[in-house]
Amino acid sequence: GWIVGGHEARPHSHPFMAYLKIAGLGSCGGFLVAPDWVMSAAHCMGNITVILGAHNIHEPEKTQQVRGVLKYHKHPEYDPDTMENDIMLLQARSSAGEYIQTIPLPKTGSDLPTGTKCLIAGWGLIDEDRATNKLFETKVSIYSRRKCILFYPHLNSGMVCAGSFHQLKDSSQGDSGGPLVCNKVAQGIVSFGYDSPPGVYTRISNYLPWIKKVMKK
Q1: In this protein, which residues make up the domain named Peptidase S1 (predicted)?
Q2: Is 176 a catalytic residue?
Q3: 86 given a catalytic annotation
Q4: Do 24 and 84 share a structural domain?
Q5: Mean pLDDT, to the nearest integer, of 41-66?
Q6: Same structural domain for residues 82 and 108?
Q7: Where is average pLDDT lowest: 92-101, 116-125, 143-152?
Q8: Shared domain check, 112 and 98
Q9: Euclidean distance between the first and final Cα of the chain, in Å?
Q10: Residue 24 lies in a domain
Q11: Where are the alpha helices (DSSP H) in the chain?
C-alpha cells in the first residue's frame, strides 16, 4: 500500500499506529484498539511482529515497544478473491505509555455521511520509487456508496470508500491494514484500491459484534 502526496506526520501524533513486520512478506500497518489488541487487515496475515510507539521505523527509537503476537484472529469469512471481510485482530502483550495509546472504535453500525473528512497514516510508499521509513499521513473524504459502486461493482456493506476529490495523487492508500480515522475514531481499515481513487476500506462498524466476541475470549 502507499500514501501518495501525503506529508510526514508530526512524530507520535498518532500514538495508536502499529507497524506490522511480516516475516518474508514485508510490512503492514495496524492500530491499537485495546492495550492488548491490534487491528489490521486479514490480508496481512503472516508471522507478525508488532512495533508500537514508532515514528522512524528504521531507527531504534526509545519510544518503541516490540511485541510478538500471542493469538491471530482472522475473520472466518475473509475472502482473498473479493477482499470481503478483510479484518483481523491480533492479541499481544499489553502496551501502554506516553507514545502508545488506543484509538476508539465506532459505537454504532451506521454509515458515515458522504464527504466526512478523514485521515490515513502509514509507512507505505510515498510514490513508486521512494519508500518512507517515517510515518506519513494524508487527508481523504468519504465517497457515497452510489459513487463508489461505479469503481467497484462488488462493493458490499462491509466496505467503505474514501479518496480525495481534488487531486488524484492524494487519494491512494496508506499502508495496508492501517486505520481510516474520522473525527478521532477508527472507522475503516486500508484494504484495497487500484492506483486511482478511491481506496476501499473495511467498514469497521459492520463488524462490531464479531470484534466484541473475539476480544471477550
Answers
A1: 3-216
A2: yes
A3: yes
A4: yes
A5: 96
A6: no
A7: 116-125
A8: no
A9: 31
A10: yes
A11: 145-151, 208-216
Q: Tell me how many domains the chain contains.
A: 2
Instruction: Name the catalytic one among 43, 55, 73, 75.
Output: 43
Q: pLDDT (tens digit, 9 = 90+) per residue, 145-180? A: 999 999 899 999 999 999 875 554 443 445 789 999
Is 174 within 8 Å of 3 (Cβ atoms)?
yes
Return all residues near 216 (Cβ < 8 A) that are at least 6 apart. none
Separation of alpha carbons 24 and 159, rounded Å: 28
Domain that holds residue 56: 17-102+208-216
Catalytic-labelled residue, pool 36, 86, 170, 175: 86
Place of cell 500500500: 1
Selecting among 141, 176, 191, 205, the annotated active-site residue is: 176
Question: What distance in Å separates the CA atoms of residue 74 and residue 43, rounded to the nearest whole number?
Answer: 9
Residues 91 and 63 in one domain: yes
Report the relative pairing of strands 88-92 and 65-74 from DSSP bridges.
antiparallel
Same domain assignment for residues 147 and 134: yes
Asked if residue 2 is part of any domain, the answer here is no
184 assigned to some structural domain? yes
Q: Considering only CA atoms, which of 119, 123, 118, 133 is closest in space to residue 175?
A: 123
What is the structure's pLDDT at 193?
Answer: 79
The CATH number linked to 60 is 2.40.10.10
Phi/psi of residue 146, each to 5°?
Answer: -60, -45
